[in-house]
Design brief:
Distance between the termini: 40 Å
Helix content: under 10%
Strand content: over 45%
Structural class: mainly beta
Strand order of the largest sheet: 2-10-9-4-5-6
């Protein structure tokens, strides 16, 4: 049974930082590239970034490039999203996804507000 469990969200002030985690089970984690997505209330799900299976390659949309960093620990079957210089527009529920699979976790809420 595939499980993706996101955690680490919360309330943060503009300019602050958060690190999200995604614990994967039920898959051979090391063989999957991984995505982060986010979805704000009333908006479509937005791709936030991708990391290769080895962790050697990452890609980001312009909206988060230079502020967000994706990493992974294949020994721990865990994906991370380091978010810096957060702005109000980053407020959303954040999800991880294994590329090629349609499983989604419950997400973790990030709220950027003063």
């Amino acid at each position: 049974q595939v499980q993706l469990v996101e955690s680490g969200g919360g309330l943060v002030q503009p300019g602050g930082s958060l690190r999200l985690s995604c614990a994967a089970s039920g898959i051979t984690f090391i063989t999957y590239a991984m995505n982060w997505y986010r979805q704000a209330t009333g908006k479509e799900r937005e791709w936030v970034g991708r990391i290769s299976s080895s962790g050697g390659s990452t890609n980001y949309p312009n909206s988060v490039k230079g502020r967000f960093t994706i990493s992974r620990d294949n020994a721990k079957n865990t994906l991370y999203l380091q978010m810096n210089s957060l702005v109000h527009e980053d407020t959303a529920k954040y999800y991880c996804q294994a590329v090629g699979l349609t499983y989604w976790g419950q997400g973790t809420q990030v709220t950027v507000s003063s």
